Amino acid sequence: MTSTTANPHVFDVGQDNFETDVLQASLDTPVLIDFWAEWCGPCKTLGPMLEKLTAEYNGAFRLGKVDVDKHQQLAAMFGIRSIPTVMLVKDGQIADGFAGALPEGQLREFLSRHVQPLDGEAANDVAETPEESPEEIVARLQQDIAHEPDRTELKLDLALALMRAGQTDAADAELKALPANLATDARAVRLRNQLELSRALQGAPSLGALRQRVEADGNDWEARDLLGVRLLLEDDAAAGLDQFLAILQKARDWNDGQAKKRLLAAFSTLDDAELVGRYRRRMASLLF
Known about the structure:
This protein has 15 helices and five strands. By secondary structure, it is α/β, with parallel strands linked by helices. It folds into three domains: 10-128, Glutaredoxin (3-Layer(aba) Sandwich); 134-200, Serine Threonine Protein Phosphatase 5, Tetratricopeptide repeat, CATH 1.25.40; 207-287, Alpha Horseshoe (Serine Threonine Protein Phosphatase 5, Tetratricopeptide repeat).
């Protein structure tokens, strides 16, 4: 298919080129997929901003445009329930996504978690964009919801912002109140897993105490499990995943197969696709 603009990094996506131009291509370069339609007002706001950022990033990622009216089967495959919806495909799998027309600052923040511009000028442009604090984002979203209560995607944005601000109880309440069409959104699933992992540490021993318990008894599966969660949430993801693998290897049925559940939950919360891929393979080798 031909590019939708003069930008060589923007292209149309359909069933005929999805496998090669999205899945296979994402093994080398991340592909951002924009699900849109001609009649969608917010799409007309979001689309040009995405194309502008694609040009600025100079090939660090590609932008695939899916007209949901023309390619309903493709939209259904991704579970698209509202537009615009954007999905980031990296290493052949969905790495992240969002629904709704985000402002440019939030788009840049979203992209910065996964890709970096390929030229210095674009990098400077990103760096010069003022960043909102988590609390400022929460306040802004609450105002947006008050003004546009029918934009349900803003409620998911608020739940995510509350989690980033450390307001886990409020994030959980917003998540539970989401309409059915957003409850299965990739970002909602990720947040649900983050909250579950955080709740596991309520009243849990300290990192040092858990290490001592595991050193004293390598088969203390509860200590290994909690140690894994602590390490995962305290910025040593690989060490945390190793604890879950150790349980899976020696006691896969412990606590109704909790080690496998922890691994799957952890995979959905991590941005490091290479790390996730490596540990997925290790988990598979133990299970099959």
